[in-house]
Design a protein that fits this description.
With 361 residues, the protein is of the alpha+beta class. The protein has a domain of 121 residues. Helix content is 36%, strand content 20%. The protein has ten helices and eleven strands. The strands form two sheets. Strands 1-2-3-4-5-7-6 form a seven-stranded mixed barrel. Strands 9-8-10-11 form a four-stranded antiparallel sheet. The longest helix is centred in the last third of the chain and has 25 residues.
Length: 361
């Protein structure tokens, strides 16, 4: 899950730091300097996230200015992971998806100092954008972030239960052109209007179905309740004109919810949620394919034997940084208990899914 923790040093002029503090909900970027070892980078940054901006330990959006890229990226996200007392769940999830063959952001742990003051340990996340695609040798295309519950693949809003004013209201266009947005709208319309008899054949013109079923396998196993209607990205391959789904923001997983509370192992049903998932699993061929994926991963990768050595290795790597983290050091006992919480979730979730595989017959 990670070899070592990298040290980042932010140097922000006091007036710009005051500007950040004045309105934590503002996305305006302020100039700063980032030192990584002896490398000096001019950057722009702001706070990031929705509800997490209220936390004492802030998360950051970093845009590289001079040079305009670093490590083949134009920006990164620096997450405090403050509601996850293990600091493991997001990285564990994204690595797990990558091992399932799903496009997934890379991540690594960093130790952060701000104007010489220790801010503790963070998780750096790769941005899903045109550089994400280029770094993987993928065809150029559009990327859409699902930013709220209206990214539910439905014509009806999850926010107000009425007909949506715009079918792309729940999305932020990360890269792409207006034509791509029109195609996304067409995709959502087709999800909801293709006749049942024609759905299997027609949906594959718009969607990489195998990718979606593998993603469904991963999200059901990790039990990310929110991830069915947001916390994902869509990549539109310009060559195939098929969408692929990419996981994002998976800290509310592996047995805890978005507020850090324990989730029962049967909280997310084996069929998952959202309109697209329901229509996909209504097709016998796709439902059987999903059942096969799920069974195979339950046997091979969603096991204590496969996961716990990785979890324990990462836990031991980051524990010294938690001990010196000014926001976390007084809660080290909770951190120390989390590998067992995750371990118990893996056992209980696997048992629930094995017992319910026949629902997919």
């Amino acid at each position: 899950m990670g070899d070592k923790v990298i040290e980042y040093k932010f140097d922000i002029h006091p007036k710009n730091l005051k500007k950040l503090h004045k309105d934590i909900w503002c996305d305006d970027l302020v100039p700063a300097v980032l030192m990584i070892n002896k490398l000096k980078l001019e950057i722009l940054l702001s706070y990031r996230g929705s509800h997490i901006r209220d936390f004492k330990k802030k998360s950051y959006h970093v845009v590289f200015r001079r040079p305009s890229t670093y490590c083949q990226a134009k920006e990164v996200h620096i997450n405090a992971e403050y509601n996850d007392s293990s600091l493991l769940r997001n990285k564990l999830s994204l690595d797990f998806f990558a091992e399932l063959g799903i496009l997934s952001p890379r991540s690594r742990y960093i130790s952060l100092k701000l104007n010489g003051k220790n801010q503790g340990i963070y998780l750096e996340l790769e941005s899903v954008d045109e550089f994400f695609l280029a770094n993987r040798g993928l065809s150029k295309g559009a990327v859409f972030y699902a930013v709220n519950d209206d990214a539910n693949f439905s014509l009806i809003s999850d926010l107000d239960q009425g007909v949506k004013d715009s079918l792309i209201h729940g999305y932020e266009t990360k890269c792409g052109v207006t034509q791509d947005e029109h195609y996304l709208q067409e995709f959502i319309i087709r999800i909801n209007t293709i006749p049942r008899a024609a759905f299997e054949k027609e949906i594959s013109k718009y969607l990489n179905v195998e990718n979606y079923l593998k993603w469904l396998t991963g999200i059901v196993l990790t039990q990310n309740f929110d991830g069915f209607v947001h916390n994902y990205a869509l990549y539109l391959n310009a060559e195939t004109l098929q969408f692929e789904i990419i996981p994002w923001d998976f800290d509310a997983t592996w047995g805890r919810d978005v507020d850090g509370r324990i989730m029962p192992p049967d909280y997310v049903r084996i069929q998952g949620f959202n309109t697209l998932t329901a229509r996909i699993l209504d097709v016998d061929t796709y439902r059987k394919q999903y059942q096969t994926f799920l069974f195979e991963v339950l046997k091979s990768q969603f096991t204590l034997e496969y996961l716990m050595p990785r979890i324990d290795e990462t836990f031991q790597m980051i524990r010294p940084y938690v001990l010196s983290d000014p926001y976390l050091m007084n809660n080290i006992s909770s951190f120390d208990k989390e590998p067992e919480v995750i371990s118990q979730f893996i056992v209980n979730r696997a048992n629930y899914l094995y017992q319910n595989l026949d629902q997919l017959d």
